[in-house]
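Input/output pair, single chain:
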Amino acid sequence: MTRTVQELFDLTGKTALVTGGSRGLGLQMAHALGEAGARIMLSSRKASDLEQAAAELQAAGIDARWIAADCAKESEIHRLADETLQRMGEVDILVNNAGATWGAPAEDHPLDAWDKVMNLNVRGYFILSQVIAKRSMIARRSGRIINVASIAGLNGNPPEMTTIAYNTSKGAVVNFTRALGAEWGKYNITVNAICPGFFPSKMTAGILAAMGEERMAAHAPLGRLGDDEDLKGLCLLFASDAGKHITGQWLAVDGGVSSVIGG
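Output:
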């Protein structure tokens, strides 16, 4: 029997692991998945932030728990997977969102800073996806992986935005998504990427302060930055059966910035 739209988007009985989930875009996506019925496991590095975020979700009637872990470190990723599977049973939805950036001119960019960005933004996504798939998704022939990339991975930046490692890492995430989606389709695991534009957050605070929120908003055809709701719909589409025939794809949520030549 053909399901209704409400049934296709329903995540009741599903479990989602959201990295970088204690604030900003990660917490917004955790709200979306939880509001659709999923149980949520949040992860980030700081226990205090996670405790506050989980309390916020629980106050909204969402089953939310947390594990502090650094997804730039392989041992921490394995511990996160172990504890999540032990406490939650299975992982149906993995949101790879933990990320870092660094600002420096390319000619002076520190190598250790380059490695820090790549280890978290690319290597961490791969290791956690591999572990969760092998231990919870492949055998069940079911899974949804959502990678958070960025419109910074789709093209270059204005000269004053010196974030070459971040841009490079997010470009890698886009193609990682394409390649993994193609390879794991045989396991009925979908892999898709969200490419946010500028949203006010701790990570973007410095750039927005330097360049001005009004100026950044003016670059978007919709004339504004992202808000606390703008990722919810796409996240839920990629996580649910409403998006079960979509894989290896990316979509920008940026107010139209990436649709403009030179955007």
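The beta strands are 15-19, 39-44, 64-68, 93-96, 143-148, 189-196, 249-253. Residues 11-255 form a domain with the Rossmann fold fold (CATH 3.40.50.720).
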